[in-house]
Amino acid sequence: MHAHLTNQEITDISSQQVFTLERKINKGEFSIESVGNYLPGNVLVIDLNTLSTIYMNKSGCNILKHSAEELHELGTEYFQSFFVPEEMDIVIPTYLNMQKTQDASRIYNFAHRVKTMSDSSYKWYFASAKLLYEPGKVVADRILLIVNEVNSLNYIAKKINSVLDESDWMKMHFKKFCQLTRREKEIIVLLVGGKNSSEISDILGITHLTVNTHRRNINEKLEITSFSGLYKFATVFGMID
Predict the structure, then answer these.
(1) Residue 50's pLDDT is what?
(2) CA 48 to CA 145: how far, in whole Å?
(3) Which of 46, 56, 91, 190 is deepest in the core (most CB within 10 A)?
């Protein structure tokens, strides 16, 4: 890994990590409480119905100089206490839009500034946020974030990867997965479920020609030529059980 990460590298690394963490929680491999304190940087969960922080790991609490209980009691004041208001005016509506659309694959990446009461100036942090689907639930009302100071992300990324045990194959192909549209992901799920183009056309209410166009785009984006390749993508990225 380079000594200095580019903006794209920062986005890719952080996206991979929040995706993997949420997927493992969703599959019941572990809970955020059992793994959060082993992850460096700020790992938190926000309740989107109340806009309150319901989980913060020890590292995040140390950064903000508040206990998890104190941060929870702040409620919506949490967003006013440590951040630039104009930045939160963008972040919070984006969270709520994610809750509304329930796009299980969307990852929201953003840079923002953080300052505690004892700090003399703001520091830049980079965050990746994803809806947190708890085991057995198809609707998410919580959002999971991994947040790290930009200047320390190089070192922290290695530690997070070690804890999450991300496979080399996933990291290599994650950018391809992110290129897929929501419709293309829907079609992949139907394809690996055994549906043909005609059946997919009826289910989604689109033409047979449109389905075939999507299938061609999927193969080009993922650089695959076989059903087994498609099935591996669907399995590794949590699109099927």
Answers:
(1) 97
(2) 13
(3) 56
